[in-house]
């Protein structure tokens, strides 16, 4: 077992369990607004101050987007290898398209030229068809336009990374300029979310979190994890009320969302602590030691971030995505690993800044469900649909309160983990009743008050 020790104060972190996200990321939308390429310049934009009705218009057509991409020439801070001048020197196959035929022909052309591996090209065509069907299902009058513009940019980003591979550092900060990967992800997932049938639980606690972040406190969200789209769904449901959280949330991310070509561009738009998932640690035994060392570096980065205060970190201590019960086909939050919860708790407690741990529940598996079984190979088939989603948070749970009622530290760790999991499950069931049970806000209970903050 490897440990990480940090001086003053000393932190010893067991790596017996690995932290995992997806996906995204996960990190990740269009219909309100409909187009996805955004570029930042100078002042921070106030995109999140826009009301939902202002997001109803289509943003940019393909031609103006292409001109903006080609004009980019600055260098991304923090990554010497990622030079944005390269934007002008690679294929513009997918930004030229005006029809579905041209888009699909572009995939085949790049595959025949050997630029796109055949399995990736097949995955792109499959994703296009699934995304098209989902957006049409939303009933948007501009569905065809939305699909073509969004998928053109997705394939443009996939091809760009194939030709000029991006490597993630242990702590990856979202790439926002010259190409805004964050808004790219938001705009791609947006038309897949049925906001009329989506809810946020206990929004007042998100306001509390923002106040604490402003005071220099750290926030840790212990959450279940459902899809690669989780980061975008979280941000979309919070963007009108809590833009700081939506944009600054840091996700503990498994390596698969950093390497899968169809997921990678969305991950580039999220703040990530990059780790190797425990579930895939020994897929290649020769790489296991390298993965352990990489996880140690990532954990050190997280500790340094927490020392600085004002950080909000999301972690799924189940080690992966929720999956349905094979017998009942019912979805539920996967059980949490006590070792992962305890590692995160100790990192927060020893940061030197006040820290708070909140249990958070997500329900969005219909939008982009994972494969029914954990897969070793990169390149899973992606199913996509239009559906309601839910997010809820409950009051923080104090470890010291749990310890006081337990006989020994090991018992306290298990009890604390179970208390967090029970809260997440309770919130999840409320969201499930509201969304799948069609109860809407009436599904609220005293501990979970549902609202639609975008109305």
From TrEMBL:
InterPro entries: G3P_O-acylTrfase_chlp, G3P_O-acylTrfase_N, GPAT_N_sf, Plipid/glycerol_acylTrfase. It is found in: Plastid, Chloroplast stroma. Pathway: Phospholipid metabolism; CDP-diacylglycerol biosynthesis; CDP-diacylglycerol from sn-glycerol 3-phosphate: step 1/3; Lipid metabolism. Residues 219-365 form the Phospholipid/glycerol acyltransferase domain. This is Glycerol-3-phosphate acyltransferase, chloroplastic. Keywords: Acyltransferase, Chloroplast, Lipid biosynthesis, Lipid metabolism, Phospholipid biosynthesis, Phospholipid metabolism, Plastid, Transferase, Transit peptide. Pfam families: Acyltransferase, GPAT_N. It comes from Acer yangbiense. Its main location: plastid. The lineage of its organism: Eukaryota, Viridiplantae, Streptophyta, Embryophyta, Tracheophyta. It is an enzyme of class 2 (transferase).
């Amino acid at each position: 077992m490897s440990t990480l020790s940090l001086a003053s104060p000393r932190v010893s972190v067991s790596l017996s369990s690995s932290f995992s996200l997806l996906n995204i990321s996960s990190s990740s939308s269009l219909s309100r607004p409909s187009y996805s390429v955004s570029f930042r310049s100078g002042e921070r934009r106030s995109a999140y101050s826009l009301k939902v009705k202002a997001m109803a218009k289509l943003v940019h057509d393909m031609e103006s987007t292409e001109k903006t991409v080609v004009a980019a020439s600055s260098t991304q801070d923090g990554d010497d290898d990622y030079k944005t001048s390269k934007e002008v020197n690679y294929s513009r196959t997918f930004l030229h398209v005006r029809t579905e035929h041209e888009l699909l022909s572009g995939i085949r052309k790049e595959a025949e030229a050997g630029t796109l591996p055949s399995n990736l090209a097949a995955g792109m065509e499959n994703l296009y068809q699934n995304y098209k069907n989902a957006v049409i299902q939303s009933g948007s009058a501009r569905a065809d336009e939305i699909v073509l513009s969004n998928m053109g940019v997705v394939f443009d980003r996939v091809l760009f990374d194939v030709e000029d591979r991006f490597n993630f550092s242990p702590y990856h900060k979202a790439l926002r300029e010259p190409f805004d990967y964050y808004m790219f992800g938001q705009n791609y997932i947006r038309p897949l979310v049925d906001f009329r049938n989506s809810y946020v639980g206990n929004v007042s606690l998100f306001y509390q979190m923002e106040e604490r972040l402003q005071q220099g406190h750290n926030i840790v969200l212990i959450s279940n994890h459902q899809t690669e789209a989780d980061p975008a769904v979280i941000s979309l449901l919070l963007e009108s009320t809590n833009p700081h959280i939506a944009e600054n949330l840091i996700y503990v991310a498994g390596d698969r969302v950093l390497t899968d070509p169809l997921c990678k561009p969305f991950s580039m738009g999220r703040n990530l602590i990059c780790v190797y998932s425990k579930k895939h640690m020994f897929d290649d035994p020769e790489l296991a030691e390298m993965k352990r060392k990489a996880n140690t570096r990532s954990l050190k980065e997280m500790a340094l971030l927490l020392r600085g205060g004002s950080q909000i970190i999301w972690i799924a201590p189940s080690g992966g995505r929720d999956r349905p019960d094979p017998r009942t086909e019912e979805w539920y939050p996967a059980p949490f690993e006590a070792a992962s919860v305890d590692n995160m708790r100790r990192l927060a407690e020893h940061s030197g800044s006040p820290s708070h741990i909140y249990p958070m529940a997500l329900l969005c598996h219909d939008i982009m469900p994972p494969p029914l079984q954990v897969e070793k190979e990169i390149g899973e088939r992606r199913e996509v649909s239009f559906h309601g989603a839910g997010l809820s948070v409950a009051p923080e749970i104090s470890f010291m309160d749990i310890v006081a009622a337990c006989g020994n530290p090991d018992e306290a760790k298990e009890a604390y983990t179970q208390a967090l999991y029970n809260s997440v499950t309770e919130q999840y069931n409320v969201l499930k009743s509201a969304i799948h049970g069609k109860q809407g806000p009436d599904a609220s209970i005293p501990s979970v008050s549902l609202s639609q903050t975008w109305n």
